[in-house]
Amino acid sequence: MVYARLREDLAAARLRDPAARNYLELIVLYPGLHAIWAHRLWHALWRRRLRFIARAGATITRMLTGIEIHPGARIGRRFFIDHGMGIVIGETAEIGDDVMLYHGVTLGGRTRTSGKRHPTLGDGVAVGAGAKVLGPISVGDRSVIGANAVVTKDAPADSILVGVPAKPRQRTQDDDTRALLTAPEYVI
Fold it and tell me: Worst-scoring range by mean pLDDT, 68-82, 97-111, 163-177?
């Protein structure tokens, strides 16, 4: 199971990053992969109520990778972070399968209240560099969030979100986002 999940992660990275030359390079040099692999360990400890150890591990991972993922965040399969420096993913964030984030993305909260404070991203969502997705909102499946957009309201599936504040519009047949959202068979 673990080996199959690692292979799936490598295949997703290879698909989404045209600069990836081989699997050894991905394993050794890609902090986005290191961060998600470490997150899986810290998340398992978090779920077992070993919260201090999980938070300490996540802090060490952040220092090594520049990517901050709270151990309470729930992340789906084939998640890929490209050029991950500055990524912040909050405690109650939920990320679906086949999601891709670029550098500088924040999945953050807007309040100090307890409970759900961070966004939920559906399957196949792509988030551009520097985008901020804030609050307990939902972004529908296969949506694309443009670079530096600030998303503070729910968006339906197949949306394109751009601007400050971001306003969703439906993708048209002319919008070619297949390169980001393609989910082929993940095999090495």
Answer: 163-177
DSSP state of 41: H
Residues 6+ apart with CB under 8 A from 169: 159, 160
Cα separation of 119 and 56, whole Å? Answer: 23
Q: Give the Cα separation of 135 and 117 in Å (integer).
A: 5
Q: How confident is the model at residue 173 (pLDDT cuts 50, 70, 90)?
A: low
Distance from C-alpha of 3 to C-alpha of 185, rounded to nearest angstrom: 16
Q: What does the pLDDT read at residue 3?
A: 86
Residue written as token pair 């992969």? 33
Considering only CA atoms, give the Rg of the chain: 16
CA distance 182 to 110: 32
Give the strands of the sheet with 138-139, arranged side by side. 74-75, 94-95, 120-121, 138-139
Q: Bridge-partner residues for 185, per DSSP?
A: none
Supply the pTM of this predicted model. 0.87
| Structure tokens that stand for 43 in this block | 């998340």
